[in-house]
């Protein structure tokens, strides 16, 4: 197998996100439920005749050397060399972006996770899911979740993951048109940093219907709304249709619905100044069966 084309890198939503403390190194301790949804970037991988890792297309705002995909592939290539005493062939990768950057949808992290899964299969590198998660974590706190591949209750900085049944919902997502830089939110003096820890069972008892998906809150939302008024505007508008909240450190805002029709009705009313779309919750990562478990990889 020399190629893997059209590999999805799905987005995530943080159904709630609590900041419960701060580590000695300044990173914040979180509790969150990460939900995969069926809106995705698409990545295409081709083995090369040399040993270079190259991105073949332009991605606005992301130079090749900084792309999490390129950096993840180079990390895995070095790990392969450490284990096998030789470099595996290089990879040319094309990254077709659909997910907005700085949107709180985890696009960059998901791209990197998909790249790790694809290269692990193309090189037959044989790393386990846990080994890939450990390799990806230094590049981004959300990368382990995408490799975990199912709805997860996350703690720590997002690396301590436990599977949890998520609600089966349709989501309307609004892109407010700003990119929120994560550091700006975490460094704000008025950020809530002392939310009381919750238990998985507290969340699980709220997952039977989409109207009760509003367990907890997003502690990053008030700061994001203050610093980025378009986020506040989108939250206010969507709140008139349900329990609207921001995902991650923003900027995207979402609301859950129990049917596609209900989502369509709200989507049709979203003011034209915003990009908005609907997405369905995913129980598992679309590459989970084929790549992560190394079963029947499709070329
Ligand atoms: C908060 C989440 C929830 O999913 O937001 P999104 O990125 O998805 O919006 C993520 O955990 C974000 O993780 P990640 O995307 O790796 O954050 P980075 O951009 O590396 O973090 C930028 C900066 O934010 C601060 N930071 C980040 C994560 C964290 N748990 N505590 C922090 O204090 C640190 O100062 C860090 O240097
Ligand atoms: N492949 C990539 N896709 C998106 N962003 C990337 C990528 N590689 C690096 N980045 C950087 O990561 C930042 C965060 O992007 P992203 O993960 O999409 O947002 P968020 O963390 O808010 O969900 C971007 O602003 C960009 O500078």
TrEMBL record:
Pathway: Isoprenoid biosynthesis; isopentenyl diphosphate biosynthesis via DXP pathway; isopentenyl diphosphate from 1-deoxy-D-xylulose 5-phosphate: step 3/6
Protein EC: 2.7.1.148
UniProt keyword list: ATP-binding, Isoprene biosynthesis, Kinase, Nucleotide-binding, Transferase
MF (Gene Ontology): 4-(cytidine 5'-diphospho)-2-C-methyl-D-erythritol kinase activity; ATP binding
InterPro entries assigned: GHMP_kinase_C_dom, GHMP_kinase_C_sf, GHMP_kinase_N_dom, IspE, Ribosomal_Su5_D2-typ_SF, Ribsml_uS5_D2-typ_fold_subgr
Occurrences of domain GHMP kinase C-terminal (ranges): 218-273
Species classification: Bacteria, Pseudomonadati, Pseudomonadota, Betaproteobacteria, Burkholderiales
Organism per entry: Massilia aurea
Name of the protein: 4-diphosphocytidyl-2-C-methyl-D-erythritol kinase
Coiled-coil positions: none
GO biological process, one term: terpenoid biosynthetic process
Name of a matching Pfam family: GHMP_kinases_N
Domain GHMP kinase N-terminal: 68-149
Location of the active site: 12, 142
Positions annotated to bind ATP: 100-110
């Amino acid at each position: 197998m020399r190629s893997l084309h059209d590999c999805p890198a799905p987005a995530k939503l943080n159904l709630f996100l609590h900041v419960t403390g701060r580590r000695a190194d300044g990173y914040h301790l979180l509790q969150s439920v990460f939900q995969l949804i069926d809106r995705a970037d698409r990545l295409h991988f081709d083995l090369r005749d040399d040993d270079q890792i190259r991105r073949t297309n332009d991605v606005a705002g992301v130079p090749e050397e900084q792309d999490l995909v390129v950096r993840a592939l180079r990390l895995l290539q070095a790990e392969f060399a450490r284990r096998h005493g030789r470099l595996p062939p290089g990879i040319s990768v094309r990254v077709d972006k659909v997910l907005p950057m700085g949107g709180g949808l985890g696009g960059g992290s998901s791209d990197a996770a998909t790249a790790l899964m694809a290269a692990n299969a193309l090189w037959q590198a044989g790393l386990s899911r846990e080994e890939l998660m450990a390799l990806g974590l230094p590049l981004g706190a959300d990368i382990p979740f995408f490799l975990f591949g199912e709805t997860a209750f996350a703690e720590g900085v997002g690396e301590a993951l436990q599977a949890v049944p998520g609600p089966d919902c349709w989501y309307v997502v609004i892109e407010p048109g700003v990119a929120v830089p994560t550091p700006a939110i975490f460094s704000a003096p008025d950020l809530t940093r002392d939310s009381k820890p919750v238990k998985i069972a507290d969340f699980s008892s709220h997952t039977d219907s989409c109207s009760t998906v509003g367990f907890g809150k997003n502690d990053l939302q008030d700061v994001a709304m203050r610093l980025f008024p378009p986020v506040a505007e989108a939250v206010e508008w969507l709140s008139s249709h349900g329990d609207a909240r921001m995902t991650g450190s923003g900027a995207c805002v979402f609301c859950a619905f129990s049917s596609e029709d209900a989502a369509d009705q709200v989507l049709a009313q979203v003011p034209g100044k915003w990009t908005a779309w609907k997405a369905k919750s995913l129980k598992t990562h679309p590459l989970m069966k084929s790549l992560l478990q190394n079963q029947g990889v499709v070329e």
